[in-house]
Amino acid sequence: MTYDVLTLGRISVDVYPNDIGVPLADVTSFGKYLGGSATNVAVAAARHGRAAGVITKVGDDDFGTFLERELDKFGVDRTLVARDDSLQTPVTFCAIQPPEDFPLYFYGRFPMAPDWNIEPDALDLDAIRGAGIFWSTVTGLSREPSRSAQIAAHEARPVEALSAGQHTILDLDYRPMFWDSVEQAREQVARVLPYATVAIGNDTECAVAVGEGTPDEQADRLLAAGVQIAVVKLGPEGVMAKTRTERIVSAPVPVQTANGLGAGDSFGGAFCHGLLAGWPLEQVLDFANAAGAIVASKVACSDAMPTTAEVISLLAERGRTVPNSQKDLV
User: What is the C-alpha to C-alpha distance for residues 279 and 275, in angstroms, rounded to an integer?
Assistant: First the structure.
């Protein structure tokens, strides 16, 4: 199968409280969802009609079965999803205390989780080479053998071998609990950054990758490292994308935040869709920004990923630019 978007990395069962605004100690009931940043990006891309797949591993248990069923439900190809009978499927708990407090608690991930146990020789390198967009996350570099698998995947896809319209995106997703130090993370990022055409991260993640500085300074360092598009999320000020010839800032799309988790993954899948559609970068950024806002306004992550029509509707409602090829959806 040839993928429009193929992601590599984390998968888990996300367990979110049905009781909003209280700490986990006071929660009385929960819902379970498909989770994991790389997997959520594949779901988001599939919601926009893209042929999406994920390379990951689940445990050989009932939670693994649940995740496989959810991938099928969302139309994400799981040909490259394996089972690991030596490890349990991880579970991630979250407390939901809007507007800004959404702490995560990882269970079954330490010292090892199935998606960190992906071996380089198990990769389908032809599928990786052929994907329109190959997406990986920095989290996958934090453990072996996943680290070697990530590096092997990128080495199989050098920038000079990419066809017109192909992109390799590195999600600078940095979670300090997975690393011994910032220096260790920065060292590993430096190994794969030269293979990326796009890098996406917030100010903290960009600082880990290329050092402290203003958003423009960080974007310039990412460009100097070889990427073609540097995307720096600016929090309440929106998001900036910078290339060697243009600098674009997309203003935030204000919503009532229900759960800030998953918004970045929705942004990522929508960004992939717009990039593959060949839209101007300004329209790609606005579209992705709006897609992220929709998920932030809902409790779930994967289940809340919007369709293209839903994103276009929000853009039109807020008086924002609608991509030309999508105006018929409004």
Answer: 6
User: Are 274 and 283 within 8 A, CB to CB?
Assistant: yes
User: Phi/psi class of residue 191: alpha, beta or left (left: φ > 0; alpha: ψ in -120 to 50)?
Assistant: alpha
Strand partners, 101: 97
> Could you say which DSSP state residue 164 is in?
T
Structure confidence by residue, pLDDT tens digits, 43-84: 999 999 999 999 999 999 999 999 999 999 999 999 999 999
In whole angstroms, give the CA distance from residue 215 to residue 232.
Answer: 6
pTM above 0.90, yes or no: yes
Phi, psi at 19, each rounded to 5°: -95, 115
Residue 174 burial by Cβ neighbours in a 10 Å radius (0-12, 13-18, 19+): buried
Confirm if 17 and 261 have CB atoms less than 8 A apart: no
User: In the numeric block, which tokens belong to residue 83?
Assistant: 């089972």
Q: Residue length, the chain?
A: 330
Give the integer Cα–Cα distance in Å for 252 and 257: 13
Q: Which amino acid is at 286?
A: D
CA nearest to 12, candidates 50, 82, 63: 63
Q: Which residues contact 232 (CB under 8 A, 6 or more apart)?
A: 201, 202, 203, 206, 215, 218, 219, 239, 240, 241, 242
